[in-house]
Structures are given as C-alpha cells and as structure tokens.
Amino acid sequence: MRVLIVDDHAVVRRGVRALLQPSPDWEICGEAENGQDAIRLAEDLKPEIIIMDLSMPVMNGLQATRAIRQSLPQIKVVLFSLHTSSELVRSIFMAGAQGYVLKSDAETDLLTALETVHNNKTYVSPAIDPGLVSRVLEQVQSEGKTPD
C-alpha cells in the first residue's frame, strides 16, 4: 500500500519511514511538511493512506484532512499527534480521518493502525480513554460523518 507521510519535522518523517520500511506491505510514495503540500501530493501521488501530523504551519492536519477527504474520498487518513482531548478526538473524526495515533505510541501502534484503517476499520491509540472514543464515534456517526 502506498503511504504519504506528512509532518513538519524531518526527524519525525524519518522515524515514520524507519518504522514502515522493514515491511514489504508499505511503500512510501512521498513526504510533505505541511497540509497544503499534503493536498497537492495526495492529488498527484494518489496514496492509499496518509499519515498526517495534526499541528503544522501553513495548513494544519485537520484542514488538510477535510480537503483531501472531500476531493479524494478513497484516500484514508491517520492523524498523528501528542494530544488526547475529547474535543480534538471529535474534530479528528469529524474531519474524515479513519485513525488517530498518539506520537508517543507510534513505535508500537503505527503499523497496527495502518492495517486497521486499510481494512476499513477505525483505529484510535489504546492510551486514549475507550469510553471517550465510543462516545465520540457515536456522535460522529449520528452527525452523518461515518469514518470509513
């Protein structure tokens, strides 16, 4: 599966690349350092999955996810951040993301998240309160924004 990595820190992009490279299932088709570049590369490269940082200059991950999912709904997005607030989790899924991985859990959870999302299921880092996740996903679904 083709993956686009989007993060404003080169060291994080290299770290994600290092996590994915040993697996023959994942092909890194490109990298971007902001949401605006992510949109352009998504249109040009047509990755199956985008791993996208939440906080970036020029355009953040939520804005880019909304734009990508609107114009290229077949592309799945896994957002990547340090934050766990209920409003943020809600915003992530309302934007159209199918997964949310905490950066602190990436080494152990990122490949699982990608497999889960690739199989059309929703993934949220286990460190985030499961009750919160259930409530958020129910709310998102009731508002008609079912993550696919």
Key phrases:
19% strand, 148 residues, 46% helix, alpha/beta, Rossmann fold
* Total DSSP E strands: 6
Q: Low-confidence spans: pLDDT under 50, at least 5 residues?
A: none
CATH superfamily heading: Response regulator
- Overall form: globular
CATH topology: Rossmann fold
Cα-atom radius of gyration: 14 Å
Order of strands side by side in the largest beta sheet?
2-1-3-4-5-6
- Give the rounded overall mean pLDDT: 90
Question: What's the CATH class label?
Answer: Alpha Beta
* Total of helices: 6
Main pleated sheet:
6 strands, parallel
Structural class: alpha/beta
Overall structural domain count: 1
Q: How much helix, percentage-wise, in residues?
A: 40-55%
What is the end-to-end distance?
17 Å
The percent range for strand residues is 15-25%
CATH architecture title: 3-Layer(aba) Sandwich
Chain-wise SSE layout:
Layout lengths: L1 E5 L3 H11 L6 E6 L2 H11 L3 E5 L7 H11 L4 E6 L4 H9 L4 E4 L3 H13 L4 E2 L5 H13 L6
Parallel strand pairs: 1-2, 1-3, 3-4, 4-5, 5-6
Helix pairs in contact: 2-3, 4-6
Describe this structure in words.
With 148 residues, this protein is α/β, with parallel strands linked by helices. It has a single domain (2-142), classed as Response regulator (Rossmann fold). Helices cover 46% and strands 19% of the residues. The protein contains 6 helices and 6 strands; from the N terminus they run βαβαβαβαβαβα. It has helices spanning 10-20, 35-45, 61-71, 86-94, 106-118, 130-142, and strands at residues 2-6, 27-32, 49-53, 76-81, 99-102, 123-124. It has a 6-stranded parallel β-sheet, sandwiched between helices. Helix 5 (106-118) links the parallel strand 5 and strand 6 (123-124). Helix 2 packs parallel to helix 3 (61-71) and helix 4 packs parallel to helix 6 (130-142). The chain is globular. The two termini are 17 Å apart. The model has no long low-confidence stretch (mean pLDDT 90).
